[in-house]
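Students often ask why we bother encoding 3D structure as a string. The short answer is that it lets us treat folding as translation between two languages. Here is a chain of 118 residues written in the first language.
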Amino acid sequence: QVQLVESGGGLVQAGGSLRLSCAASGSAVRINAMGWYRQAPGKQREFVAGTRSSGSTNYASSVKGRFTISRDNAKNTVYLQMNSLKPEDTAVYYCNGGPTAFLPADYWGQGTQVTVSS
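And here it is in the second language, the structure alphabet:
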């Protein structure tokens, strides 16, 4: 079993920045794809950004150019640097990862709240 633990959420003003972290632990399973999803109140969960152990990345169009995903394979940790935040980025952000090359993968974190005030 793999556990994903997120950190780094909070309250920020529009135009500000936050960095989310997600650490995977608890199993010998090799993590390949890792990424972030978000869910705003009353909306479906949506893909934000993803990365593979090869280093390839992809982004939702709504965050491209503002968010950057990165990872430290040695630490099984993925990061999401969020810049130029907008009120519409307000959501619970979930880490997702697993041994496959595609998202959504098998394991989810508990979620971390990001609130952007106008």
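Translate back mentally: The two ends are 40 Å apart (CA to CA). Keep this in mind for the problem set.
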